[in-house]
Amino acid sequence: MNVLNSSEAHDECFMQSRTPATTFDALVVGGGPAGLSCSYTLAKKGYRVAVLERGRTPGTKNLFGGRVYSSPLERVYGSLKDAPVERWVKHERISMMDDDGAFSVGYDSAVSTSFTTYLSKLVAWMASKAEAEGVTIVTDVRVDEVVMENGKAVGVLAGGDRIDSDVVVVAEGVNRLLCERMQVVPPLSPGQVALGARQVIKIGAEKINERFGLAGDEGLAWFFLGRPSGYLPGGGFLYTSSSTVSLGLVLYLQEGMSVSSKHVFEILEDFRNSPPIGQLLSGGSVVEYGSHLIPEAGLKMSPSRLYGDGFVIVGDAAGLVLNLGYTVRGVDFAVHSGYLAAQAISDAHSSGSFASENLATYGNKLKESFVIREMRRHNAIRKLMNKKHVFDVYPRVMVDAARRLYEFDETSPKFLEVGRRSMKGKRSPLGMLNDLLLLARGP
Amino acid sequence: MSSPKDLQPQTKPRRTRVEDALNANVWDVDGSPHIQVDTSKCVTCKTRPCIVLCPADTFVILDGKILHSYEGCLECGTCRVLCPEKAITWKYPLSGRGVQYRF
Q1: Count of domains forming chain A
Q2: Of A282, A381, A279, A286, residue with least CA distance to A329
Q3: Which of A7, A62, A200, A430 is positioned for an S-S bond with A288, CB 3.0–4.6 A?
């Protein structure tokens, strides 16, 4: 392994401060959105960085739903002109579905702040950017352990080889085996994550534009509640890409475990074949089927400290995902956490050591940033997310109410009658008020 | 009188089997399993959530016993998190093997 790739912008002072055994200024475990944004930012500042990635090439182990908010990426990379943007999301839809119909709300705009992409492609692009700045990306490497000496991270073990580093960036993703081994987090529990399963369906750009009412590179992001997750806590999603569509479901593991009797793939197939999805995707062929866990417990599943002597934790491993019900943020949080970690590492280097107190600026920067602020602000929504009735009763009631409003023979019902009849025996007005208050009150 | 429902064109559901969906993926299957299941612990497991929640359907019941195959694993980690009996030793595949996501 050629580890002495010279980086033109290398900081001479920093080299002198290294101990002879150290090969890299920083070692990043995991070449995903967080690890790559961190390594790119560090390399730009002149540091010598290596990324250890378990996949064959960067991106081959990455998977997500389909949408990224662009601003945090633009902060790191400037223009996204050469980024693998599939479509700019200018159409949003959210639907409540039962077995026979759907009640939908939409939003259409000429402006877009997010785009659809495939994470495998976006990560490959981020890796090419990092390499262009001199980052060494070593693929096919599974890191088995972060080596700790006297409570300080001093390097990693991979395939029996030890690689030393002054600072280790843990960007291992949601399955944080290294963090668990370092005992900075307890093992993941079903209450902390959701299962995402996704099919990529090839339809063709023209058909996508025709069927979804899109023009040019306009994209659609569509969220579903009710039937798509088998009425279990979670939901469904559909994102249009250039010539393919991502269709998937999200299932909260804790609730899915205790209730689901149907195989998750069959729930997804029910969704794919339900009206109107069946018609919209007809003739399409599945070109990929994948799954991934999603951090869902917010700051509750974050390590008590996102940094320690010689290490920082970024991205999914830090639990930085926010599911708002109508949209999800994760990749943008990961990118920004990696960016802030790089700033903190640089600051710590200036202070002369990567001791915990010097890396604490990462924790502070993250707390002051939109990432933690957003997660705190929307803490209340998480309390609704594991209530079964939100995903079962409400979608059914909404569609039932719409059915009563729209499907009549001669006499159309009054609004209040519809509400009363659809809600009858489903959820008390007090219960509904409670849910509303929970949302309105905030954390 | 026919209801409007009857006038709708009947779209015949075209279901995909999970094995066909998995076959659409690019694979480089590892020679040895990256996940090991101590199936002796599954005997007393009452809920067996892995059967319905492994998205790749790698856990099946045969003659009342749980069988696991690692080849079609999507590396999501669901089984590791949900196993009530802690019967699963879970690692990522070595040398970049396993599923090769393109999208």
Answers
A1: 3
A2: A381
A3: A200
Which residue in chain A is spatially nearest to B95 when comparing CA positions?
A140
Q: What is the pTM of this model?
A: 0.92
Chain B residues closer than 8 Å to A239 by CB: none
Q: How would DSSP label each residue in A374-421?
A: HHHHTHHHHHHHT-HHHHTHHHHHHHHHHHHHH--SS-PPPHHHHHHH
In a domain, B88, yes or no: yes
Averaged over A172-178, what is the pLDDT? 97
Q: Other C-beta atoms within 10 Å of A267: how many? A: 24
Report in angstroms the alpha-carbon separations of A1 from A70, A157, B15: 35, 15, 47
A:B CB pairs within 8 Å: 141
Residue B36, in any domain of the structure: yes
Q: Which residues of B touch A261 (CB under 8 A)?
A: 52
List the domain range (segments joined by +) for residue B81. 32-103
Residue B1 lies in a domain: no
Task: Name which of B21, B53, B98 is nearest A260 (Cβ-Cβ).
Answer: B53
- Reported as a single tens digit per residue, the pLDDT across B21-58 is 999 999 999 999 999 999 999 999 999 999 999 999 99
Interface confidence, given as ipTM, is 0.91
**Contact (Cβ atoms closer than 8 angstroms) between residue A265 and residue A247:** no
Q: Which two tokens stand for residue A400?
A: 């039932």
Question: Which pLDDT score, from 0 to 100, does residue A1 have?
Answer: 36
Residues A62 and A134 in one domain: yes
DSSP code for A189: -
Q: pLDDT digits over A58-116, tens only?
A: 999 999 999 999 999 999 999 999 999 999 999 999 999 999 899 999 999 999 999 99
The arithmetic mean of pLDDT across residues A266-295, rounded, is 96
Same domain? A132 vs A197: no
Interface test with B, best of A289, A316, A403 (most B CBs within 10 A): A289
Q: Which range of residues forms the domain containing residue A413? A: 383-441
